[in-house]
Give the backbone structure.
Amino acid sequence: MRRKIFEIVEHDTEGQFLSKLYDWLMLITIVISIVPLAFREKNTVFTYFETVSVVIFIADYLLRWITADYKLKRDKKWKSFLLYPFTFFAIIDLLSILPSVGVFKPSFRLLRITRLIKILRILKIVRYSHRIELLFNVLRKERATLLSVFMIAVFYIIVTALIMFNAEGALSGENAHFQNFFDALYWATTTLTTVGYGDIYPTTNIGRFISMLSAILGVAIIALPSGVITASYLEELKNDKKH
């Protein structure tokens, strides 16, 4: 019986009907549980959504826990049952349940924390979507390259911020948009990502020249991880179709 439950709640490689039906049920439940977070007010329908979704989440959590030995495959079963609550998705599942069962009191600022923790339910979709799972495999596979690009971006932001902060440092009063180094970091980040909100901008000619260079080089740096992820994702899709 436990083996059958495991095959249903986990992805079945043979495309079992009950397993797919279970995945769709969980996806719909996750979406329904997130809907009330888009509204400030509470009503009976939202309360019903919350109650039903939490009951399903608790049942899903327990089913996965009692079949943890099939997934973790430790030499001794009790180790699997002991380690499962500390796995990534088990923690996400638990955090999505606790706010609704009264563990976090819905009083003043804690109410906001509760709502934020409930948003973690979105991460549960990863478990039930094969395409998203492939994307995470790509990110895991290319993590060394992506980490290198991230480090280049961070280095570029810091250097550009230092240059701009010193270039605009001679200005004072209303003309000084860069009051401190954090303002320069904020400007460098928005420029690198080509967002450019316009609330902080250089006013000197040298500052504007630096800004133009930063925007051009920023496009190149941002394009690097996009190309890596796209190429690796297409390769992962081809391999998945072959299997």
The CA atoms of residues 154 and 189 lie 9 Å apart. The chain is about 70% helix and 0% strand.
